[in-house]
Structures are given as structure tokens and as C-alpha cells.
Design a protein that fits this description.
The complex is a heterotrimer of chains A (about 90), B (about 500) and C (about 475).
Chain A lengths: L5 H7 L6 H18 L23 E2 L9 H5 L5 E2 L2 E5 L4
Antiparallel strand pairs in A: 2-3
Chain B lengths: L2 H6 L2 H9 L5 H19 L2 E4 L1 H16 L10 E5 L26 H8 L3 E6 L19 E2 L2 E5 L5 H8 L5 E5 L6 H7 L2 E4 L20 E5 L2 H11 L17 H7 L8 E5 H5 L5 H16 L3 E5 L7 H16 L18 H12 L2 H14 L4 H25 L2 E5 L15 H5 L6 H6 L3 E8 L5 E7 L5 H14 L10
Parallel strand pairs in B: 2-3, 2-6, 9-10, 9-11
Antiparallel strand pairs in B: 1-3, 4-5, 6-8, 7-8, 7-12, 11-13, 12-13
Helix pairs in contact in B: 3-4, 6-7, 8-18, 9-18, 12-14, 12-15
Chain C lengths: L5 E12 L36 E2 H13 L3 E2 L2 E2 L1 E5 L9 E5 L5 E10 L6 E14 L3 E7 L2 E5 L6 E7 L6 H17 L12 E11 L9 E6 L2 H20 L7 E6 L4 E7 L9 E2 L6 E2 L2 H9 L5 H10 L5 H7 L3 H14 L4 H19 L10 H12 L5 H13 L5 H8 L7 H14 L1 H8 L4 H13 L6 H13 L1
Helix pairs in contact in C: 2-3, 5-6, 7-8, 7-9, 9-10, 10-11, 12-14, 12-15, 13-14, 14-15
The chains are: A alpha+beta (about 90), B alpha/beta (about 500), C alpha+beta (about 475).
Chain lengths: ~90, ~500, ~475
């Protein structure tokens, strides 16, 4: 099993790891991956992946506007909002 | 009616008492709230109690009863796992991330039960975002087992199982992604059912792993489960995976049954009973349950689920993969926790998620991110999906020679809090008997079938073919007609 | 060292916003211009417990586009999650189609260039897939914060991906314009580029002529006008060739075009490319489209520009150039077809001339869309008929047109009457004028009789003058000829 690039994974997941917690997580992940690595031993040639328990087509909704404006209720949930906008630290494009 | 009576009454008995005016919904709500509060410190079964809303709902139920025409669940107190969104009542998923989150809507299940007149007294404890098998991973502290408060209640729906076992409410909702209804039901000596995937709408349930999550109920008997399940089933256009078919009246089927199971073929998977780690007491109790079924007319047959052991690795790839994506929305922007100090946007994300999520959630997000990441997708995620098909196929084949599968719910009884300690894998291995039904989308239930030498309850699991909920409930109901394991009360 | 001859290779990815009323996975409105976040419902904001349900209207539009580009409509396609963090992406993933798109293997043939140099070019379309749009980041300063408006989040998009078949900016622009016409033609997208309804990403690379492998490409993001598309590609091609000729290498990158400087600049390189971790969205099931639905959509499809263009040339006798102009939009083509329907197909050419000449000039000058033209197709038809039957001269027709345009009159015959534009064609009325002209211009008469054809024109002119322009010049000519040679 290759060594896990934990920094890259944590960055993709946007989870900050302190040096202490990184060591613990690394050990945990190694254990979990050792468990899931048992899958590698199985020959699955020709088996179609099953991404869902339901073998049904997607249901479609009609193209109708059903949602009323709920801005005030929704913005009230936000940590920071102003002038009808959610606010986040400056995004530099 | 006293709280004592509430403790041992069935839903039909309670409904009769309400109908005959021997008690009122408000009195039942008061009794349930009182008991919940009295036991909160010992059990920590609840994250939030809603006495005012409960009393208002109870009074409304009493009003409607006076006006006539109420359903069987009208005025019955119950509790919701704190993973179901409740309008105006904070819904935390047992996470710091959502500790203050108050949804502007009700989950479908919540809505259905409220429409039926049931009275919610509050929100029960769980493993954070339903990730766990012990209810130890909660931002609000672990839930404890009513049979021994030094032990776990099971998870993730530990609070719901404990609340029913402790006689606080006769029924509670749960969700089951890898055993989260059945396993705590087994640990707490109550009955719990996870229906077929698609039976119950996922709308308003905080997602853990969407292709595995399914709502269920925990109650004191199969009959009570049947009544509650009948109320929450049905088509919901807001969930693309909700089955568009009429719901079945499971309870009516039970009422019409004669208590015999003549000709029912019960399959005992060889691999389950041979599995390493199966506790001897559990094994003998489940085998005894099989003999009881036999005495009711069922025929025992040996079946094989050759890839049973591989369900664990397959599940611990698929569930974390879906979770890593489902939990990406918790970024501190639109709702929920935001870290107080950060340097820039990415730092806000990283700190918010580091502080807002507990360790087990972070572990699963990291594992899920890893198995989906470039270069690992085929080896892990795609391979797990292929295994998923093979595992589902094993179940399908097993059902060629049996009508229901009988198995232990969990390999052991409730362990001591903190006992599994450092290694997350030890906890994962506990899910061996339950996750197959989730991977295949099958209905399954757990009912009590005895106690181990320490006096802890043991669960017996029945797994059915797709949409065979009624068959499962009929079998468990017949079992409970002949046994009284489900009537045992914890020494609180 | 020999100078290398370079070949440009371009492929376009075009995001067309679909014209549905509601969003692709929620029942929130897609109307443009609402106040921030008033059209962002709980699903769009990704509140916990909310779930996506697919909009039939979005799928129907994807089928329509697929049929219009003669592509395969997938019987089964799959929605996947594209995972990345960005504040305008509420779920932390975008629902899109990845491995199995709804439309694949289409093509359109477009006209490139004008006149002698014009040629046809077929551009293959690899795929078109459904996906949801993200919200908007507003970078005005809110105490050092960025504002997020999620109204656009969840708006349905069709991403139309071409093969790298284009070899010049002109070809790329011709293809983009043709697709722009087509999506509006079939009503799947309003094509409003200012509002971002039609956004173009261009993948550009260069390679030495004769080389079959593709060069390293750079992707120019979010071009919202054809002019910028042209300028951005021109700049990019120049830059890439210069870089290579100076011995440098082109790094794969995503770039933005700065219209003010006329330059592209790097947004991100491949090294910091995302790892999107695509996987099938477990909240959605495979999209299944049956034959019957496809046929139903097909039966409601209008005649497509390419087919109409062919018909205008073959049946209406128009030049390919005029046919191309008339099919620039569905509205214009419909206008033309309505005029021809009223005038009769034999008058197709004069109808086209009026529409592309007088009318187009007026519309252009006053900035009016064809749909709002005060001159209606029925007017054009009446006008060309009256010219055809000799009632009015071309000059008279121009006056009628002017009256129709200004609203002075609404009926062609009434205007002719009111302005006295009817030509005198009656022989007896013309005869005295003709006789007078012959009598008054013996020199011209003599010249004509001596074989000088031109002299006849002078006599016609005299008659026209005497009639104050009312005489039908054709009839006058006939009469003069008869009298002088008879």
C-alpha cells in the first residue's frame, strides 16, 4: 500500500490538521485502508459497478416554479450576511 | 394514565386509552417529558427536548379527538433522531457544525407523523452525522445504555433506542445507513426496522451516505413498528429515490395474522454464524430464536452469503466516499458553524471544518476523499461498487432458497463506553451483519431474543427480499406472540 | 533556420443557459434580474436534508439541441458530482454529467467567410451535457468581504463541447455564431450574451503544419462576445507561436481574456489543477429517455436553418449569401417566409431584396428588432405585388415603404391612393402625352429612327416628366416604340 499523501487529501477536503492530529489521522487512515484493501483481492472482471440500490430511471418534475422567495429566512441562518448577500472573506480572482 | 403504564403499553393500548378517554394526549406528553428529563443525566438520550411545542401539539391532538375522527397515532408521544430536520427546532446531527441550526422545514417523516397527530417531545442523540456504531461520537456526549449506563447504547440511532427502551416514548424514528436502527435496537433490547431503500422519503434527513441512508423506526414490538412504519411510508416527489407506489398497511396485515409461520423458510447464512468475533452468548441466543421460529412452523435452511466479510470493506469505501461529498456543504458560508479566526477564505474553510466536525467524521471525510481522488478511484471506489453488485447478487441468490434470512444483529452485546478506544476499525467490524442489507437496499429488522451472561440484551435480525417489510414484521410479530424478550424492562 | 508554418487548432466549449422557467433541480425561478438571493431556495442554498429532482423541461431542451445537431440522444445518461470548494458553489459539488452525457456525436456545418472566399465547414460536436450553474461572487468591497448571490445557482446549462476541428479564429467565430443562432432558433436558450446566457470557452493550441499530434493547449475562459472570441484567439495564437519560435514551451493552463488590454493572462496552471473526484450522484438515478419522447420532440422541431437555407436557394431562387443572411435568426426567417407566403413564391426574390435592403437598413439604423418592425410581412408582400403588377414604380414603392415605416399609413393601397402614386398605364391616357412628346422632340425621334436606341430613353423621360412621374415607364416605352416604328 502506498503512503498516503495526507496533506493533499486534507487540502482537498479543506480540513486543517495540526501536527499532532495529523499523526493520529495518518495512523487511523492506514488502519482503515488496510481494512478496505481486502477488496483488491477479489476478481471483479466483467462485473458492472452498482452505484445505487434502485434499478430505476430518474423521475422528472414538471418545469414549474414552486418555490417562493425565502431569502430573509435563509439569510438569517448565515454566519455573516448583509444587503441580501452571503459574505465570505475576499475572493481574489 | 401514569408514566408507569406508558412504559409497558403498546401503541394499540395507548390508542384505546385515548379513545376511551382514560387518558389525554397532553397527559401522555407530560409523562414522557417528565421521564425524559428525569433520565437525561443518566442516559443522555436527548439533545433537545421541546416541552412547549410538545404540549401545544398534544393539546391540538386532544382538540381534534373531541371533534372526532383521529388516526391511531394521534396523541402518541414520540421522539425524532436529531438527524431529521424539524421546522423551528434546532437540528444538530450531534455536530458542533450544526449546534445552532434551526431548519425552516420538516423532514417528510416528521411531517407524516405530525399529520397523523403524533406528538414529538424532542430530538434524540446520535453519532455525529450518523457516523458510528456506539453513539459515542456525539458533540453532545455519548448516549448510555438503559440496561447498563456504563455501556454504549449502540449507534448511530442510540438516543432513539435508549428512549424507547427506557420507556420514555413508545416509538422513535431512526435512520439506518449501515445498521444504525437495528444495531442500537439490539443493544437496547427493543425492536427496530429499516425498510427497503426508497420506501421512506429521505427529504429532510441530513445526509450521510445517500445510496445507503434509509429512515426507520424503533419501538417496543414488531406490531408498533408496523404501525409507525405504515405512517411514514409513501411517495414523496421531493426525493428522486422515493418509490412511487402506494404504501402498505403492515399493521392491518399483522392484525389479520394467526401467529403461525407455516412453511416460512428461514435462511441461516453459514458465513454469519462462522464469523470470527461472534460472541458465544449471542450465537446461542440467536440459534435459540431460530428454534423458536421453527416451533412456529418455519423451516430452517442453511444459505450462503460468500462475500459477507467483504461487505465491511465495500461499505467503508462507499459510505465515506458519499459522505465526503455530502458534507462538503458545511463550509461556514450559508449556515452552521464558522471558525472565529481565519486568514483568508481557504483558511476559513479549513478551520471551520476542522473545528466543526468531530474526529470520526473527519476520518470518514478523509477516507472518502482519498478513495475518490485521482489515481485511487478505480482501485477503491469502483472496485467497491463492483463488490456491492456481487454482494447484492449473493442476497438475491440466497432468497432463491429462503423467504427471510435470520442472523445476529451484532456480533456482541453492548460494550463499555470507551472500550473500543483507539482503533476505529474495531468499531467498523461490528457492522458485519447489518451493512449487507444497506448495500443491497433490502429491508431488515432487529428484535430482542435474549440476554447474555451480563444481562445485556441480544438482537436477532431478519433480512427480507426487496419490499418484503410485511413478511419481516409478520415473522417478528409471531415470534413476539410466543416470547416475552421484548417485554423485559431495563433496571432503571 | 526556416520559419515554421503554424497551424492553429481550436475547440470550443459553450455553456448555453436553458430557457426553463424553473431551475434544473429545484422549483426556484430562473428569471433574470431579481434582487440577490431572492431566487435561491433551500435546495439551491444546499440546506441539509434538501434533495435534487430533475426538471423535465431541461431534459426536453437537451433532446431538442441533440436532434438539431443530428447527434445521438443517450438512452441512459448519468449525473455525477464534480467536487470542489468555492463560495458560489453551495453544495461543495456541481451536479453535472461526466462519463455518460445526454447528447453525443453531433455536428453542424457552417458558412465561413463571404463572397468568393466563402466556404463550408463541418464542426463535430463531441457531446452536450446537462449541468447546474453556480452562483455569483460580487467583488465590490463589503468591508473586505466578498458578497455571494446564489440566484443563478442551479440554473440549467447545456455544455456543448466541440471537437478541435477549427483552424482559425474566423472558423471558431462562424461556428459559435451558428450555434448561437441554432440554440435561439430552436428556443432552448435566449442567447443573451451580456446576461451570460451563452458563454464560450476556447481551447487553443498551435502545431507545425503537417504535424498530426495536438500541441499543448491553453483554455480561454468565459468569453461573452464574438468579438472577444476573435480577439482572444488571435492574441493567444500569436503569443503561442512567438513563445515557441523563441524556443519556449507552452504550459497547459486556463487563461482569462482582458478585453481592455487585448491580452490573455494565466488564471491557473495544470499543476494546481483541481482533483474533482467525480462520482455518480447517489441522490439521482440514471436519466432514461425513450424513443417515443425523442420522436415527440422531433415532431415539434421547427425547420432548421441549414435545411431552410437549402430550400431558399433551391426553391426560392435566392443566392446562398442572401439565404444565409435571411436565416441569421428564426425571427428574420419567419418574417421572410410570412412575406413570401402572402406574396407568392414567384415574388420571393423581391421580398428578400426588400427585407435585406430597405427594411434591414431601417431596423439597423433605429436599433429595432424585426419583431417590433412597424412594417409587417403582409406590407412587404403587398408592396412587391403592386410593383409587379405595375401599379407603382420602384420609386413609388419606396415612398409607400416610408409611409408604412413612419406609421403614416397602414395599408399599401390606401397609401398609393392617398399619395397618388399609382402609375398611369391606361393607353388612352398615355397616348396624348406620347404624341405630345413625339411632336415636341423631333430630334430624338429622328435619332431613334436612325437606329440610336438611347434616343428612346429621352422621349420616355419627357413623357414621365409631363405625367409628373405617374406614367408607367414600361407602358410608355412600349407605346413610343410602337408609334415610332409602326
Amino acid at each position: 500500500m502506498p503512503a498516503i499523501d495526507l496533506d493533499r487529501i486534507a487540502e482537498l477536503a479543506r480540513i486543517e490538521l495540526t501536527p499532532d492530529s495529523a499523526a493520529a489521522f495518518r495512523a487511523d487512515l492506514q488502519r482503515v485502508l488496510a481494512l478496505v484493501d481486502r477488496l483488491q483481492a477479489v476478481d471483479t472482471t466483467g462485473v458492472a459497478p452498482m452505484s445505487h440500490p434502485l434499478d430505476l430511471p430518474q423521475r422528472l418534475r414538471e418545469d414549474v416554479v414552486t418555490e417562493a422567495d425565502q431569502r430573509d429566512a435563509l439569510l438569517a441562518l448565515a454566519p455573516t450576511a448583509e444587503n441580501g448577500l452571503y459574505l465570505v472573506p475576499q475572493v481574489i480572482e | 394514565m401514569s408514566a408507569e403504564r406508558l412504559l409497558t403499553s403498546s401503541l394499540r393500548e395507548l390508542a384505546a386509552a385515548l379513545a376511551e378517554g382514560r387518558t389525554r394526549a397532553e397527559a401522555l406528553a407530560d409523562a414522557a417529558l417528565e421521564r425524559a428529563q428525569a433520565l437525561q443525566e443518566r442516559l443522555n438520550a436527548f439533545i433537545t427536548l421541546t416541552p412547549e411545542a410538545a404540549r401545544a401539539a398534544a393539546r391540538a391532538a386532544d382538540e381534534r379527538r373531541r371533534a372526532g375522527n383521529v388516526s391511531l397515532l394521534s396523541g402518541i408521544p414520540l421522539a425524532h433522531k436529531d438527524l431529521f430536520c424539524t421546522r423551528g427546532v434546532r437540528t444538530t446531527a450531534a455536530s458542533r457544525m450544526l449546534a445552532e441550526f434551526v431548519p425552516p422545514y420538516d423532514a417528510f417523516v416528521v411531517e407524516r407523523l405530525a399529520d397523523a397527530g403524533a406528538v414529538s417531545i424532542g430530538k434524540t442523540n446520535l453519532d455525529e452525522f450518523a457516523m458510528g456504531s456506539a453513539n459515542e461520537h456525539s458533540h453532545f456526549g455519548p448516549c448510555r445504555n438503559p440496561w447498563d449506563t456504563s455501556r454504549i447504547a449502540g449507534g448511530s440511532s442510540g438516543g432513539s433506542a435508549a428512549a424507547v427502551a427506557a420507556g420514555i416514548v413508545p416509538v422513535a424514528t431512526g435512520t439506518d445507513t449501515g445498521g444504525s436502527v437495528r444495531q442500537p435496537a439490539a443493544m437496547c433490547g427493543v425492536t427496530g426496522i429499516k425498510p427497503s431503500y426508497g420506501r421512506v422519503s429521505r427529504y429532510g434527513i441530513i445526509a450521510y451516505a445517500s445510496s445507503l441512508d434509509q429512515a426507520g423506526v424503533i419501538a417496543r414490538s414488531a406490531e408498533d413498528c408496523a404501525l409507525a412504519l405504515t405512517a411514514i411510508e409513501g411517495f414523496d416527489p421531493r426525493d428522486s429515490t422515493s418509490l412511487d407506489r402506494p404504501s402498505e398497511d403492515h399493521a392491518a396485515a399483522l392484525a389479520a395474522a394467526d401467529g403461525q409461520l407455516d412453511g416460512l423458510r428461514l435462511g441461516l447464512p453459514r458465513e454469519f454464524f462462522a464469523a470470527e468475533g461472534l460472541d458465544a452468548d449471542v450465537r446461542s441466543a440467536v440459534e435459540a430464536a431460530a428454534r423458536t421460529y421453527e416451533s412456529l412452523g418455519a423451516r430452517l435452511v442453511e444459505v450462503s452469503l460468500p462475500r459477507a466479510e467483504l461487505a465491511i470493506p465495500a461499505y467503508y469505501v462507499i459510505a465515506p466516499a458519499e459522505a465526503s461529498s455530502n458534507l462538503a456543504r458545511y463550509d461556514g458560508v450559508r449556515y452552521g458553524y464558522r471558525a472565529p479566526d481565519y486568514a483568508d477564505l481557504d483558511d476559513m474553510y479549513r478551520k471551520t471544518r476542522a473545528q466543526g466536525f468531530g474526529d470520526e467524521v473527519k476520518r470518514r471525510i478523509l477516507v472518502g476523499t482519498y478513495v475518490l481522488s485521482h489515481g485511487y478511484y478505480d482501485a477503491y471506489y469502483l472496485q467497491a461498487q463492483k463488490l456491492r453488485r456481487l454482494i447484492a447478487e449473493d442476497y438475491r441468490q440466497a432468497f432463491d432458497s429462503c423467504d427471510l434470512i435470520l442472523a445476529p444483529t451484532a456480533p456482541t452485546t453492548a460494550w463499555r463506553l470507551g472500550e473500543k478506544g483507539q482503533d476505529p476499525v474495531q468499531e467498523y467490524l461490528q457492522d458485519i451483519y447489518t451493512i449487507g442489507a444497506n448495500l443491497a437496499g433490502l429491508p431488515a429488522l432487529s428484535h430482542p431474543c435474549g440476554f447474555d451472561s451480563a444481562g445485556l440484551p441480544i438482537g436477532c435480525q431478519l433480512i427480507g427480499p426487496y419490499l418484503a417489510e410485511t413478511r419481516l414484521l409478520l415473522a417478528a410479530h409471531a415470534f413476539q406472540g410466543k416470547t416475552d424478550w421484548h417485554r423485559q424492562l431495563p433496571p432503571l | 533556420m526556416n520559419r515554421t508554418d503554424w497551424e492553429t487548432v481550436i475547440g470550443l466549449e459553450i455553456h448555453a443557459q436553458l430557457t426553463t422557467r424553473s431551475k434544473i433541480f429545484s422549483g426556484a425561478s430562473t428569471a433574470f434580474g431579481a434582487e440577490p438571493n431572492r431566487q435561491a431556495c433551500a435546495i439551491d442554498v444546499a440546506l441539509p436534508g434538501t434533495l435534487p429532482v430533475l426538471n423535465r423541461g431541461a431534459v426536453e431542451r437537451a433532446i431538442r439541441l441533440g436532434l438539431a445537431i443530428e447527434a445521438e440522444i443517450a438512452e441512459r445518461s448519468v449525473f455525477a458530482r464534480k467536487n470542489y470548494f468555492y463560495p458560489d458553489l453551495p453544495k461543495g459539488y456541481q451536479i453535472s454529467q461526466y462519463e455518460l452525457p445526454v447528447v453525443k456525436n453531433g455536428a453542424i456545418t457552417v458558412q465561413v467567410g463571404e463572397g468568393e472566399a466563402a466556404y463550408e465547414k463541418t464542426v463535430r460536436i463531441t457531446r452536450a451535457h446537462l449541468e447546474e450553474d453556480a452562483g455569483k461572487s460580487l467583488h465590490e468591497d463589503f468591508h473586505g468581504m466578498t458578497g455571494i448571490d446564489l440566484n443563478r445557482a442551479g440554473t440549467p446549462l447545456l455544455e456543448i463541447v466541440s471537437e478541435p476541428d477549427m483552424r482559425s479564429a474566423e472558423e471558431a467565430v462562424a461556428y459559435a455564431r451558428a450555434l448561437h443562432t441554432l440554440v435561439r432558433w430552436i428556443g432552448v436558450c435566449d442567447g443573451n450574451m451580456q446576461e451570460g446566457s451563452f458563454r464560450i470557452d476556447a481551447n487553443v493550441s498551435v502545431r507545425p503544419k503537417g504535424e498530426t499530434r495536438l500541441g499543448t493547449r491553453r483554455e480561454i475562459k468565459n468569453l461573452n462576445s464574438f468579438r472577444f472570441l476573435q480577439q482572444a484567439i488571435d492574441y493567444e495564437v500569436r503569443w503561442q507561436i512567438e513563445t515557441l519560435e523563441e524556443g519556449g514551451t507552452v504550459q497547459q493552463a486556463t487563461v482569462l481574456f482582458d478585453p481592455e488590454r487585448g491580452e490573455t493572462r494565466v488564471m491557473r496552471t495544470k499543476e494546481d489543477a483541481h482533483d474533482y473526484r467525480y462520482f455518480p450522484d447517489p441522490d439521482l438515478l440514471p436519466l432514461v429517455i425513450d424513443r417515443a419522447w425523442i420522436e415527440e420532440v422531433r415532431s415539434n422541431l421547427p425547420e432548421l436553418p441549414q435545411a431552410l437555407r437549402r430550400r431558399l436557394v433551391e426553391a426560392h431562387g435566392l443566392t446562398p449569401y442572401d439565404a444565409n443572411l435571411l436565416t441569421a435568426s428564426k425571427e428574420l426567417a419567419d418574417y421572410y417566409l410570412a412575406a413570401v407566403a402572402a406574396a407568392g413564391q414567384a415574388l420571393a426574390k423581391p421580398c428578400a431584396n426588400w427585407i435585406l435592403g430597405e427594411l434591414a437598413a431601417k431596423l439597423n439604423r433605429s436599433g429595432i428588432e424585426i419583431g417590433e418592425s412597424p412594417v409587417l410581412p403582409a406590407h412587404i408582400a403587398a408592396l412587391v405585388r403592386r410593383v409587379q403588377d405595375g401599379t407603382i414604380s420602384h420609386a413609388g414603392a419606396k415612398k409607400v415603404f416610408e409611409a408604412l415605416w413612419t406609421g403614416e399609413g397602414q395599408d399599401v393601397d390606401a397609401i398609393i391612393e392617398a399619395q397618388g402614386l399609382e402609375q398611369v398605364s391606361d393607353e388612352s391616357a398615355l397616348e396624348s402625352l406620347v404624341d405630345a412628346a413625339i411632336a415636341a422632340n423631333p430630334k430624338s425621334v429622328e435619332e431613334f429612327r436612325a437606329g440610336k436606341e438611347k434616343a428612346l430613353n429621352a422621349l420616355v423621360g419627357q413623357v414621365m416628366k409631363a405625367s409628373r412621374g405617374a406614367a408607367n415607364p414600361q407602358r410608355v416605352t412600349e407605346l413610343l416604340r410602337r408609334k415610332l416604328t409602326g
